[in-house]
Amino acid sequence: MVKKAELHLHLEGSATPALVRELANRNGAELDPSTFASDGEYKWKDFWDFLNCYDKAAAAIRSAEDYRLVTYDYLKRCATEDVIYVETFSSPDHAATAGMSYQHHLDGIIAGIDEARRDFGIECRIIVTCVRHLGPEKALSVAEQVLQNPHPYVVGFGMGGDEAKYHPADFKPAFDLIDQAGIATTNHAGEFGGPESIRATLDHLPVKRIGHGVRSIEDPDLVKELAERQIPLEVCPGSNISTGLYVDYQSHPVNQLKEAGCLITLSSDDPPFFATSVGREYDRTAAAFNWTEEDLKQITRNAIQSAFCDEELKEKLLTQI
Ligand code: ADE
Ligand code: ZN
Question: Residue 290 CB: number of other CB atoms within 10 A?
Answer without folding.
Answer: 8
